[in-house]
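Input record (one chain):
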Amino acid sequence: MVIEYEKDYLKELYDSGVCKNKKYRFQKQVVQKYQKRIDTLMAATRKEDLFVFNSLNFESLSNDYYSIRIDYHYRLEFKIRTEGTETLVSICTITDITNHYQ
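The corresponding structure, as predicted from the sequence alone:
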């Protein structure tokens, strides 16, 4: 999948592992798992590829909105859209990192 980031801090966290904005600072372990989840999304060619990983806890939140588990407390929310008729390109837009239990 092609990855787009809805918010700048999400790209910063993936690229460098830290974020300039103090509001979006996470523990090192959470950032490492986030980067690993982004890599998993990049490797997938379609959303069905994510079903086989039980540890992701892939969930459909609403039309085209989904989430996967980063760790016990955090989830990665994203949306998927497909463009093109002959060549299907799935574009995954990362929307947010949320605390699952708040």
